[in-house]
Amino acid sequence: MRIVQVPLGNRSYVIKVGGGLLPRLGAECAQLKLGQRCTVITDSNVGRHFAGAALKSLAASGFEPVLITVPAGEKSKRIAVVEKCYDQLAAHRLERKSFIVALGGGVVGDLAGFVAATYLRGIPFVQVPTTLLAQVDSSVGGKTGVNLKAGKNLVGAFYQPQLVLCDLDTLKTLPKREYVSGLAEVIKYGIIFDAVLFTQLERSLPKLLQRNAPTLRAVIARCCEIKADVVGQDETESGLRAILNFGHTIGHAIENSSGYGKFLHGEAIAIGQVAAAKLSQKLLGLPTGDVARIEKLLLQAGLPVKVKLNPAPRKKLFAAMKLDKKVSGGEVKFVLAEKIGRVKFDCRVAPETIHEVI
Ligand SMILES: NC(=O)c1ccc[n+]([C@@H]2O[C@H](COP(=O)([O-])OP(=O)(O)OC[C@H]3O[C@@H](n4cnc5c(N)ncnc54)[C@H](O)[C@@H]3O)[C@@H](O)[C@H]2O)c1
Ligand SMILES: [Zn+2]
User: Does the annotation count 227 as an active-site position?
Assistant: First the structure.
C-alpha cells in the first residue's frame, strides 16, 4: 500500500492506495474515532458490485451503516437528489458525530461530499473512489458540489474528507471506456508537473492498460501526490491550482457543445490537451517533439486526439468557450506548456490562434 499525505493544516488527511482496501473500510474508519452511525452513499452500478463489502466491513467494526443508492450518472448531481439524501440522513437520525462514506466515481464523491459539507453544517466523510478519474482527481482536493440547469458544478463547497481509500481492486469492474477516459487525467499530471512520470507512462502504458496492480499503485499514488501538492499550495483556486485545468478550456467547450454523452470528460480533455500543446508550440516554444509525444501517448492509450468540426458545431464550440469562466477581454485564458513537466497559467490567447489548432 502507498500512503499520500494531503497537508492542509488541521484539515490534513491521508490517501491510501492499494489492493484489498475496501474490506478494511470499517477498521480504517474505527481508527478515525467517528460516531457509530454512518451512511454509505453509492450509485446503482457501484452498489451492485461493492455496497455489500462496504456494509459488511463497517458492521464488522461495530458501526451501524445505512445504504443510500442514487441512480448512476451525472443526473444524480443535483439539488433534488441532495435533498433526498438529507431526508434519509434525518430519518436514520444521523447526528453530528456520524459520518458519510462516498462509494463511487466522481459523481457520488461530489454529491456525497456536498451532502456531508452541509448536513448539520458539516459531518465527517470518507471517500472510497471507484473510477480511475475519481482516484487520481475528484477525490483529492476537497471540491464538492452539484450542477444547476444553468451549468455544471455551480453550487458547492470546499470540504475535505477525513480519509481517502483508493482500492485498486474496485477498478477491475470499471468499463474500459471509463478507465481509458481516466488515463487522460493521468497523462495530464505528467505534462503539467512531472516529466519523469510522463516518461514512465510512455514505458509502462501496456501494463497500465492491463490494469496491472503494482503499476497502477505507483501511478495513482504519484498523481495524488501531485494534486495534493498543488492543492496544498492553493486550496481555493486563487492561482496555481489552475494548472490542473491543462487541456480543459477546449475540453469543456467540446463537452458542452457536442451534446450530452457524446464525449466522456477524459476523451474531451484528451482532444483539449493536444490542442493546448499545439498552442503551446506556437506561443511558448514547446518543442515539436514534445507535442508529438503528448499526441502519441494519448493515442496509444486509446483516446481521441482531434475532432472534426463543420462550421455550425465550430461556432457552437467557440460560443461555449466564451461562456467559460476563463475569458477576459475577448481573449481566452489557457494553461500552456513550456516543456513536458512545466506549464504556465493565465496565458491569454486570441480566438484566431485557437481556430488554427482545432
Ligand atoms: N471534485 C473534483 O475536484 C472533480 C474533479 C474532476 C471531476 N469531477 C466530477 O466527477 C464526475 C465524473 O466522475 P467519473 O468519471 O468518476 O463519473 P461517474 O461517477 O459517473 O462514474 C462513471 C460510470 O462508471 C460507473 N462506475 C463507477 N465505478 C465503477 C466500478 N468500479 N465498476 C463499475 N462501474 C463503475 C458509474 O456508475 C458511472 O456509470 C463529474 O461530475 C465531474 O464534474 C469532480
Ligand atoms: Zn478533468
Answer: yes
Residue 178 Cβ < 6 Å to ligand 1: yes
**Ligand 2: distance of its center to the CA of 181 in Å?**
10
- Ligand 1 centroid to Cα of residue 104, in Å, is 7
Q: For helices 106-118 and 79-91, give the axis angle rounded to 10 degrees.
A: 60
pTM beyond 0.90, yes or no: yes
Is the CB of 49 inside a 6 Å radius of any atom of ligand 1? yes
Is the C-beta atom of 141 inside 6 A of ligand 1?
Answer: yes
- Are residues 34 and 97 in contact, defined by beta-carbon separation less than 8 angstroms? yes
For residues 47 and 176, what is the distance between their CA atoms, to the nearest angstrom? Answer: 19
Closest-lying ligand to the alpha carbon of 266?
A: 2
CB contact at 8 A, 242 and 335: yes
What nine digits make up the cell of 307?
A: 475532432
Computed from CA positions of residues 338, 239, 229, 276, in that sequence, does the dihedral angle turn out positive or negative? negative
The CB of 255 under 6 Å from ligand 1? The reply is no
Angle at 146 between CA 254 and CA 7, to 5 degrees: 95
How far does the centroid of ligand 2 lie from the alpha carbon of residue 248, in Å? 7
With a 6 Å cutoff on the Cβ, whether 78 touches ligand 1 is: no
Interval between CA 58 and ligand 1 midpoint (Å) = 23
Query: pLDDT tens, position by position, for the chain (358 residues)?
Result: 999 999 999 999 999 999 999 999 999 999 999 999 999 999 999 999 999 999 999 999 999 999 999 999 999 999 999 999 999 999 999 999 999 999 999 999 999 999 999 999 999 999 999 999 999 999 999 999 999 988 889 999 999 999 999 999 999 999 999 999 999 999 999 999 999 999 999 999 999 999 999 999 999 999 999 999 999 998 887 889 999 999 999 999 898 888 767 899 999 999 999 999 999 999 999 999 999 999 999 999 999 999 988 888 888 888 878 776 666 677 888 999 999 999 999 999 988 899 899 8
